[in-house]
Amino acid sequence: MRYIRFILFIGVIIGMLGCDGNELRVTSIAGANVRFQFRAKEYLIAPNETIVLKDIPSASYAFTTTFTIHPSADFGVGDSSLAGIMDFYARSTQVSMLYSSHWEVSDDSIPKFTYFVHATKTTTHPTGGCNPTSAE
């Protein structure tokens, strides 16, 4: 009986250490609002604003982004960095997402202003070949 309690105690300790502390920080320095969709929720991020999501369970999650076209723009363009997968591993993975934007003006007789939005994602965990639910 003592052996079974010891194994259960160790299992609980390992389980608690495995997932706690995963954090996602999303910052926007884009010129207009960004809507970040993650884990079935949508977050509105205004220019120069940051949101922090804590205690994210260890797993891989899809994310996507929509954005407001700046009022001065004729067109809005987003690249492939606005959607993808985020991996949260055991032992306190931190992920940072930074949204930014820039302008391009066409050389037409009537200039057209295009607003581009980009995202840059970094993580504290090495990428490639790791199991997000393992305790490594």
Account of the 3D structure:
- The protein is mainly beta and 136 residues long.
- The chain has one domain (2-123): Immunoglobulin-like (Sandwich).
- The protein has 1 helix and 9 strands.
- It has one helix spanning 2-19, and strands at residues 23-28, 34-38, 41-45, 49-54, 59-67, 75-78, 83-88, 94-105, 113-123.
- The strands form 2 sheets. The chain has a 5-stranded mixed beta sheet with strand order 4-1-8-9-6, with no helix packed on it. A 4-stranded antiparallel beta sheet has the order 3-2-5-7, with no helix packed on it.
- Strand 8 (94-105) and strand 9 (113-123) form a beta hairpin.
- The model is unreliable at 129-136 (pLDDT under 50).
Q: Please tally the β strands and state the result.
A: 9
- Provide the succession of SSEs: HEEEEEEEEE
Shape: elongated
Helical content (DSSP H or I, runs of 4+)? 10-25%
Please give the count of helices. 1
The parts where pLDDT drops under 50 for at least 5 residues are 129-136
Strand count, sense and closure of the main sheet?
5 strands, mixed
- The CATH class is Mainly Beta
Distance between the termini: 30 Å
User: In terms of structural class, how would the helical and strand content be classed?
Assistant: mainly beta
What Rg, in angstroms, do the CA atoms define?
20 Å
